[in-house]
Amino acid sequence: ILNFFSSTRLFQVLSKFESFSPNFLHVFPAITFDFVRKVGQKYFVSNKERGSFQKAADFCDQRGLELALPQSEEENHMLLQLMGQHEKRAWININMRKAEGNFQSDMKNRPLTFTKWGERQPDQSIQDSGCSMAAEDGTWRVTPDCSLDADIICQL
Question: Which residues form the C-type lectin domain (predicted)?
Fold first, then answer.
């Protein structure tokens, strides 16, 4: 359908649908992903791709989204369900460089309202280069190796 319409025509068609559902255009990007999970008012989306922290952040940003960051136990559980089968880990929207070393805010410097740090985490010994990920057991950890392959999961 996307190849059939020009971008202007597609916007006109989608605008008609918006009258049926005010949130339609907000969630439209989700339909382009292989996996979509709704939890509360948030959607987690993924194509089951893996990559470095920078690749993950760029992937989400290029689509007008941001890396996943659970704000509740329910959201954290849903994030785990979207993780791949091997080396279950996913990048989350906390980066030491952006969080100014305190791991108390996300990459846009919004304060964290929910955390699920594992034992001895966040690792304060990792200076200016740490990146955060959710692990298979549902806890979060900081790694100095931001080039690791981890699942890329975005949110909207």
Answer: 43-141
Residues 22-37 have pLDDT tens digits of 554 455 556 678 888 8
Both 6 and 60 in one domain: the answer is no
CB 141 within 8 A of CB 132: yes
DSSP 24-46: HHHHGGGGGSSEEEEETTEEEEE
Domain carrying residue 2: 1-25
Whether 105 and 136 map to the same domain: the answer is yes
The pair of structure tokens assigned to 59 is 């992937």
Tell me: pLDDT of 18 over 70. no
Confidence of residue 99 (pLDDT cuts 50, 70, 90): low
Q: Output the pLDDT for position 3.
A: 46
Mean pLDDT of 94-101: 64
Task: Give pTM, 2 decimals.
Answer: 0.78
- How many domains does the structure of the chain reveal? 2
Same domain, 91 and 119: yes
Cβ-Cβ contacts under 8 Å for 83 (sequence gap 6 or more) = 89, 90, 134, 136, 151, 153
